[in-house]
Sequence to fold (444 residues):
Amino acid sequence: MIKTIRNAWKLPELRRKLLFVVFALLIFRLGAAVPVPYINTEMLQEYISANSGTIFGLLNTLSGSAMSRATVFALSIQPYINASIIIQLLTIAIPALERLARDGGEEGKKKIQSITRYTTLAIGLIQGYGYYALIRSYNLLSNTGVWAGLVIVVSFTAGAVFLMWLGEQITEFGVGNGISIILFTGIVSRIPSMVVHVYSSIRVYFADTSAWTAEQLAQRPPMHPGIAALLVVGMLLLVIFIVFISNSERKIPVQYAKRVVGRKMYGGQSTHIPIKVNLSGVLPIIFAQSIAMIPATIGMFVPSSQVEGSAWNTFLSVFNSTSALYAIIYFVLIFLFSYFYATIQFNPIEVANNLKKNGGFVPGFRPGRPTAEFLSKVLSRLTFFGAVYLGIVAILPIITENITGIVNMSIGGTSVIIVVGVALETTKMIEAQMLMRHYKGFLE
Fold:
């Protein structure tokens, strides 16, 4: 990836795009450090830290610790992701939206995008008020007046809408998917603090405990350095496995028939259709997380959800990011969204019709419907394997956390999938633009 960025930097156009991305991400990190007024951020950080193994810890990780600091970007890009999921599902359920997306052309896409933006605003208001209600229920406000509440909710909502706009600007004028890059940056920004935490834990483990009190011994990290090293090796192997699957693809051979147009002969060459094993990329993980967060988002409106032993507290504890039910729901949602997004990315009927129009065919299958059925069968099998892969990789850290008792493993595992997936996708987009400008395939 570093080599790709270095080569892209030599091209003036790509260099401008990379500089734009860097500038946009600096704005993102600056906004993630600007606190919203009237909130006791120190006590809020203690609360988030105490609940780091819950859904609030996951939200804090995805926002780059902006949530625990109650900054203007505390909601991160979750409202936009939730809005995108809702609109895509409604596009399938509502015929008018389906026709708009399928036959509306560029104008239809703009209308769908406009609807998604307004939905993001509505969800941002709901989540902003929910977060405000949570903070107020814990008496973390220096001012409980109506004006203070309005300022806090509007600040959270405005931050979410601004990040949506910033992500769109990165996609249009930069390199890669802007929303994914913002999510990637938020997660990566926590790496230095994580390294310091691990280093401090190892130092405490080797410290002289002869003069320690019983309370200090009880707070001693339960993780042996050998186990920590084993987990690091396991994480590296996990990254290698994710990269291997992400780059794996099924190549379907395509043969073009010879045809004579005037005095020239066209066709006759062989090529292939590449279909990724994990065609959906990292999006099923992001979508599944957003849906799995809904119970906790609803619970933010209810102050009694933070009272130990209450009905809401029990309900939310069932959806804790380390619970078995959460892991099952998470796996099923990843499975469903993998199929859902694969059908959006690759349409077998459309591909078969395009091949037929251009005189192409898959050896052993007649053009038209037989080719579409074959492509659909291949897509279904690859999507099944990709969904199982994503699901296993996502819940494996949850299982490890329950076995070892080490907190935040589930959150860290999800972050690895997102970071590796976004890094690979962005690198491929940069390489594609470099290839288009160098015309290597034509010259060589």
Summary: The beta strands are 249-256, 259-261, 264-266, 270-276, 360-361. The two ends are 24 Å apart (CA to CA). The chain has 20 helices and five strands.
